[in-house]
Design goal:
- The complex is a heterodimer of chains A (537) and B (217).
- Chain A is an alpha+beta fold.
- Chain A has 5 domains: 48-151, no CATH class; 164-285, no CATH class; 293-420, no CATH class; 425-490; 495-523.
- Chain A has helices at residues 29-48, 129-132, 247-252, 281-285, 362-375, 422-454, 460-490, 495-523, 527-530, and strands spanning 52-57, 69-72, 75-85, 92-98, 111-115, 118-120, 123-125, 135-139, 149-151, 164-171, 182-185, 188-198, 205-212, 224-227, 232-236, 239-243, 255-258, 274-278, 293-299, 311-314, 317-325, 328-330, 335-344, 378-386, 391-398, 414-416.
- In chain A, strand 11 and strand 12 (188-198) form a beta hairpin.
- In chain B, helix 1 runs antiparallel to helix 6, helix 2 (85-92) packs antiparallel against helix 3 and helix 3 (98-127) crosses helix 6.
- Chain B starts with 13 loop residues before the first strand and ends with a helix.
- Helix content of chain B is 57%, strand content 12%.
- In chain B, strands 6-5-8-7 form a 4-stranded antiparallel beta sheet. A two-stranded antiparallel ribbon of chain B has the order 1-2.
- By secondary structure, chain B is an alpha+beta fold.
- The chains are: A alpha+beta (537), B alpha+beta (217).
Chain lengths: 537, 217
């Protein structure tokens, strides 16, 4: 409402400019553009928002919300967005925002685990995480069932994305096996131990192993697995054995396998086949007893040196082993006996009848054979297998003039007749000899006493006496020699004894040094790389 | 009733905003150019409220992504990490670093939002022809005008960091999409402040007085 003031005549008039007024104010383009940009960003965000998953960890050690990545083969596929304690207060639940493209791979058997520096066996992995921080590894699953809630593995799956097969090994003892223990095939590392679990019965351990391709093609149903752990030092009746698989297995233990040569065209064993894990290669390839027969042997001598597992031999060939040694007391006579139970494989000593008469029971014919053999003088005896270790073994031998014996087939197990072994024989002989000598000396004394009265030059007695003395001297010399040699064998300060002591001491020293090394490595696995760095606290 | 204080507009005169020369618009027109300095002359800024409102809405729209999207992403050999403004505030919050954290909080989060709300209040109150607290409202306007530009500090720090930290294999810092929106918020609010005409605050008072005077005259 400009009413022109006429009282100010000097005020000049403004210039007129043609109006260029827009009907629509362009200023409104700005908020529209801003809104459009915001909406576009929001839409792309929502479109790019992948699935959200939860992973349960046992510990949040090294994990950080909004920092820790989920990594598949070196590619970021997600990020942890939140970490919280599970309601049970034992676990940690992490929420991860995954890339939208991972949607199809988040299935039931997809596995997650924390990648951090680890040493398993002799292999070191995840060193990169020392700089970058821990991340979460993924192994994509094959299942078609979609899943959003996962539980992390305690350690990376060893089967990784490598082709191969998983097998189970059955073993009563674990030895130095553990997760990541290498598996050797002809001394090449062919796989790893995945897990070691106790069988539900608690009697056995189930060792799950992974053998990578192409080595898994060499595993057939007949393949034998055995402990290749460290150095296998065995001092048995067969002598000293040192067996190792490789330097790596000496330090970390291992499992070796081999398929018998006869299976040249192997058909690979199916996945998850169960095998037995043997103690050593010899054990693994020992033919399993096909129809073991157990017998009982009662020896009237010391069992010192006889162990369970000691061989039972026939003519120097092992046909079985000692399975049990347990002393027992006869309630009637109050006498101790030490029955030895042996298990022998009849096939190994050739009871493999060329032709079993038709209609005749195999067991029946076996009984007949045993009866015949016993009547011909087959007897069990203990023999010294190794003079150093003093270990004994059971030997079946035909003793020509053995006291006759019969078998009582009603017993279970059947008791076979025994004779005293060679050491016992020597002892018996020496005792017999001493008795003879004693007898002779007594005779001589009596003779001398009566001779006193009868001594006359050129008497018949003197001549007899002379003769007797001569024979006694001969006997004594014999006895002396025998005792001397026996002494040498038994004397505490003999060379043999000293050597034996020395050997055992050194063996003991070596064993304890090795145990210390193993202990130290167990506590400080990093010492393999860094060397020994003082005592850690 | 005290007499109506004269304004240039009430007398039908333009005051030049640049040189202060009073001039009368050419007959039949309301706008023109200053005869002395050729500055554009208007009684009031044209479409002031409309423009301010448009800029404010644009700023408010941009304010959301500016705070939700990361403003900076740090790439190290260990992986990349991107932070929003609020995360930066949380990150800086420590027994020794809390003043810095507060500065970022004020400059980057509270001031832009306060600016938008303050201008919105001014626009609405002017539109409704409110005559209350005129002095406070002008004070508010001045504060918004002075303080508002400091929000740009954040953008400057960000761009400096981005250009300085480019140790390619080890570490690099890259601007995030949020930064662009944040800069837009700051610029748009400044434009809004610029397009708002504080003289409008006083106009309703004048016209009301005029009306009452006319009624009682």
């Amino acid at each position: 409402m400009p009413d022109h003031d006429q009282s100010l005549p000097q005020v000049p008039e403004s210039k007129t400019v043609p109006k260029k007024r827009a009907r629509f104010s362009f200023v409104w383009v700005i908020p529209i553009v801003a809104a459009a940009a915001g909406v576009w960003i929001a839409v792309t965000r929502i479109m790019n928002k992948g699935p959200e998953i939860t992973i349960v960890f046992t510990s949040a050690d090294g994990l950080e919300a909004n920092k820790t990545k989920v990594n598949y083969n070196g590619l970021d596929v997600g990020t942890l967005t939140a970490i919280r304690l599970a309601p049970d207060h034992q676990h940690v639940i992490a929420t991860a925002a995954m890339n939208p493209k991972t949607k199809d791979y988040l299935v039931k058997d997809t596995k997650f685990w924390v990648v951090k520096p680890r040493m398993s066996g002799l292999s070191v992995s995840g060193l990169g995480t020392l700089i970058s921080g821990y991340y979460i590894g993924v192994q994509l699953g094959q299942s078609t069932e979609s899943e959003r809630n996962f539980t992390a593995l305690p350690s990376p799956p060893l089967t990784g994305n490598v082709p191969g097969r998983v097998y189970m090994l059955h073993t009563p003892k674990l030895g130095s096996l553990g997760e990541g223990t290498p598996i050797f095939f002809r001394q090449i590392t062919a796989g790893q131990v995945v897990t070691c679990d106790l069988d539900s019965g608690g009697q056995f351990l189930n060792v799950k192993i992974f053998v990578q391709a192409p080595y898994d093609d060499y595993i057939s149903a007949n393949t034998r697995f055995w402990h290749a752990s460290g150095i296998d030092l065995s001092l048995t009746a067969n002598g000293l054995h040192v067996q190792t698989e490789s330097l790596m297995s000496i330090l970390a233990g291992g499992i070796a396998f081999e398929t018998p040569a006869s299976d040249s065209a192997v058909t690979p064993a199916e996945e998850n086949t169960t095998f037995n894990l043997f103690d050593d290669r010899t054990d693994a390839f020992a033919p399993p007893p096909r129809d073991p027969q157990t017998y009982r042997l009662v020896f009237k001598q010391s069992m010192r040196g006889l162990t369970v597992g000691a061989p039972v031999q026939l003519g120097g060939i092992t046909i079985g082993e000692v399975t049990e040694i347990s002393p027992q007391l006869d309630a009637d006579t109050m006498e101790f006996t030490v029955p030895v139970t042996v298990s022998v494989d009849p096939q190994r000593y050739g009871i493999r009848f060329l032709h079993v008469p038709a209609g005749q029971d195999l067991a029946q014919s076996r009984k007949k054979v045993m009866d015949t053999l016993i009547s011909r003088g087959l007897r069990a005896q203990l023999k010294t297998g190794n003079i150093i270790s003093g270990s004994l073994y059971v030997s079946f031998d035909v003793i020509p003039n053995a006291p006759p014996a019969t078998l009582d087939w009603a017993q279970n197990p059947v008791e076979l007749p025994t004779v005293s072994g060679n050491i016992q024989e020597i002892e018996d002989n020496v005792a017999g000899l001493l008795k003879d000598v004693d007898h002779a000396v007594t005779n001589a004394t009596v003779l001398l006493g009566s001779a006193n009265h009868l001594i006359e030059p050129d008497s018949v007695f003197l001549a007899h006496l002379n003769q007797t003395i001569m024979s006694a001297r001969g006997t004594l010399t014999n006895a002396d020699t025998l005792l001397g040699s026996a002494n040498q064998l038994i004397e505490p300060n003999s060379v043999l004894d000293a050597e034996l002591n020395n050997l055992l001491l050194q063996g003991g020293g070596a064993a304890s040094a090795f145990r210390e090394l193993a202990d130290y490595l167990e506590r400080h696995p990093e010492a393999l790389i860094r060397g020994k760095t003082g005592e850690a606290k | 009733m005290n007499s109506l204080p004269p304004t240039a507009m009430s007398r039908g005169l333009h005051g030049c905003p640049a040189c202060g020369l009073l001039s009368r618009p050419a007959p039949g027109t309301e706008e023109g150019h200053c005869p002395r300095c050729d500055e554009k002359l208007e009684f009031r800024k044209p479409a002031s409220l409309e423009r301010t409102l448009a800029y404010l809405i644009a700023a408010a729209v941009c304010y959301i992504p500016a705070n939700v999207l990361p403003v900076m992403s740090t790439n190290t050999s260990g992986g990349s990490e991107s932070d929003t403004i609020m995360q930066g505030v949380v990150l800086l919050w420590s027994p020794t670093g809390w003043p810095l954290s507060l500065i970022v909080l004020f400059a980057s989060i509270m001031i832009p939002s306060a600016k938008i709300l303050a201008l919105l209040h001014l626009v609405i109150s002017v539109k409704r022809g409110s005559i209350k607290n005129n002095v406070q409202r002008v004070r508010l306007y001045r504060m918004v005008e002075i303080i508002g530009r400091w929000s740009m500090v954040d953008v400057f720090v960000d761009t400096f960091t981005v250009s300085l930290i480019q140790l390619q294999p080890l570490m690099s810092v890259e601007p995030g999409p949020g930064l662009l929106f944040f800069a837009a918020v700051v610029v748009l609010t400044m434009l809004a402040v610029e397009s708002f005409d504080p003289r409008l605050i006083w106009d309703p008072a004048n016209s009301k007085i005029t009306k009452t005077e006319v009624q009682y005259a």
